[in-house]
Amino acid sequence: MSEAALLLASGDPKVLQSAFSEIEGYLRAQDWKDHDVGSALTAYRLLFPTLVNYRGGWFRADRFSPHNADEWFAQPEATVAGVEFMVNHIDLLEDDPRGDDAPDEAANALAAALAFAWPVWFKAFYGIDVEIRVHMHDDESTCARTISFFTKASA
To answer: What Rg, from alpha-carbon coordinates, does the chain have?
Structure first.
């Protein structure tokens, strides 16, 4: 789990406030004079996704297709948790609700907010417990900010 997610998991109100302030920045980054509610809806759907149940796994509806999941299930030694993890994977630099590359601080804050919001949302609305995996990687050739989840029951 990332440092940001671990800090969030501590329940420190200052850390939570900081993370949600960054998310609020995503929503305010748009010119609201143009009534761009699309960005707000994108951020909402990212924080509180609709899930579908398929072959014993839980998948984000916006990322799910039976064909894609079946391809992952067909892999040797595929597990429900592994397929959930792959299908639910999000690249935070590509999926920035503002539509451009997120700076490190914003990507870290988004990862922390998702790591906090998803388990609460999924438990409250779907009755499932999930494990969140956050990966932050920088080197000379790549920069990655990814997050995914799988249900604890499938692990």
So the answer is: 16
**How does pLDDT run across 113-122, given as a tens digit for each residue?**
888 888 888 8
pTM: 0.68
Q: What is the pLDDT of residues 39-82, one digit of tens each?
A: 666 777 888 888 999 999 999 998 899 999 999 999 999 999 99
The pair of structure tokens assigned to 32 is 């609201």
How many independent structural domains does the chain possess?
1
Domain boundaries, position 72: 3-154
d(CA 62, CA 86): 14
For 22-118, strand residue ranges (E) read 51-54, 57-60, 90-91
Kind and range of the H or E element at 133?
strand 130-138
Contacts 24+ apart (CB under 8 A), 100-105: 102/145, 104/145, 105/22
Q: Would you give the DSSP letter of residue 79?
A: -
The DSSP H or E segment spanning 148 is strand 143-151
